[in-house]
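The following block was generated as part of the benchmark described in Methods. Ligand: pyridoxal-5'-phosphate.
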Amino acid sequence: MIYFDNSATTKPYNEVLDSFVTVSSKYFGNPSSLHSMGGQAEKLLSQAREQVAKLLSVRPSEIYFTSGGTESNNIAIKGAALLNRSRGRHLITSSVEHASVMAAMEQLEQVGFEITYLPVDEYGRVSVDDVKNAIRPDTTVISIMQVNNEVGTIQPIKEIGDLLKKYPSILFHVDTVQGIGKVPMNLYENRVDLCSLSAHKFHGLKGTGALFIREGARLAPLFSGGNQERQMRSGTENVAGAVSMAKALRMTMDNSKAGINNMREIQTLLRGELSSFEGVQIHTPINGSAPHIFNFSLNGLKAEVFIHALEQDGIFVSTTSACSSKKKTSSKTLLAMGVPETIADSAFRISLSFANTKEEALMVIAAMKKAANQLRKVMN
Ligand SMILES: Cc1ncc(COP(=O)(O)O)c(C=O)c1O
């Protein structure tokens, strides 16, 4: 089996599974309970928070555990928009964000907020000038992803952060779900107020994640109840999930340098080999893209059919993003980049992990050649 769909999700590290089982079975107390079992669980939760904060170079009080990227994005965007609505009702985002950002924005639009969706260039990149020109006196939130989940383009987060230093009242949210551990980013230096993480994208467990909320940034909580997570996210804490997420993040960060180099080399190999394929169009920009995502079209081949043909050889790749791949719509990111619909519909995404190898990449190339030839023969 060759798993090349790591942007959809990753295989949990064994150590992550072990810590989840250990904490769930031995330290299952509720952190809010007054007895010692509650105290033990609370201690583990605090340690996990400290570890995540240390790995992100921020304060523990700025880390809030959530169920993943979707929830973090919703809390950040809706929470910030709602709390600041008396100051303004204008938000800015890009036209290539993940569905969890887009849908949150659309929901806010339905209740009277105004959203500016910035265009992107042919590489899928937002222009800092466009951000600047879109800012209005009533702008309260700007949400731009760090790494695009479909094509891997890195957005100019540092430059946008520098621009926003002149606008202290605007909250800057960055979705780093695809970037963490693969594209370094300093939250304080980049003037990020809110940042979303999802553990299952870095070998943690599904249903675990975090939101960084910079000290002083204020949000309206979306869940009401027992006031856990310092009133930001009510509901009994997933202590085992938080501990296992901290472990996954530490293991990812520890291996990050070598992992990035390895993925970059595999991507270069794939790019070189694929460029000789008939009708290939590579969508991932050669400069300013993440090391793990590689998106391309093979003209005339239906992505869905091709993916199933590769699966017969035990190879797992994706069409666009995992959550939109079952919908029969063209990739929004590719269309926003100006890719024609017919080409966008034959786009594939290969996404790597630190553990993938060049040998696997060569096997995938050979299988793709075989599948493309067979499918083209059937079509002619
Ligand atoms: C960029 C981006 N943001 C958010 C999410 C949602 O994360 P989760 O699956 O943890 O809800 C994803 C998942 O694919 C993503 O790629």
